[in-house]
Give the backbone structure.
Amino acid sequence: MSPEPYLLPNGRVLRYSFHERLVHWLAAISYLYLLLTGLAFWSPWLFWIAIVLGGATISRELHPWAGVVFVIGVLLMYRMWGKQMKETPADKEWWAAIGHYIRNEDDKMPSADRFNPGQKLLFWGFLVNGILLLLSGLILWLPQYIPWGLRFLRLTAVLVHPICALLTIALFIVHVYMGTAMERGAFASVIRGDVSRAWADHHHHTWYQQLVRESSVKK
Ligand code: HEM
């Protein structure tokens, strides 16, 4: 599996290995395609997106397959990050102090591990909603295989699919805003893989201190 992040010889910190970045962008790019084509199917006002993306037929054909790719990406994320995303007792303190986080008073926040509780919430949100989107999407994709006696499943799928999509859109907007505009340096970590020591210490103090301790034990 992916190697543990470590302190690099150039004085920086490896936050995401190549494997982790690859999986992240597999999920992110497939999600972007799902988002755009899904919005095109959802509202006639947005149908032009499907035209821009190659036409209605191609968008309709590829949307479910992109869904399969997205869920594979999310399941791979679960395999590499699932353990680190579990809730810890320290997370409760972090949530209790969320007001400081929102007001950008980072110095008043309890120290975070490799992933802070907000990032954990995003992870579980994408995992649960991704699976529900796939299950409801399968029913919408292949309705001919749903027996007549189970036709309520079709109605359920028509409701579950857009609700879960809207939930992921909310997560996605917050995630992209946080990762690009709010936490300077975070975006480079999913491109190049590394962050400065100051960034790691500031945003993920518990994690960074653990890396420093481990590296001094090895020396
Ligand atoms: C295309 C838009 C996206 C951008 C610009 C983006 C950006 C980022 C950035 C900058 C990080 C590193 C954050 C940090 O370590 O502090 C990150 C991590 C992560 N991303 Fe994305 N991402 C995108 C799409 C997605 C999608 C669609 C998913 C859904 C599966 C996702 C799931 C995650 C997860 C689980 C992490 C690790 C925990 C976290 O930072 O929230 N990302 N992403």
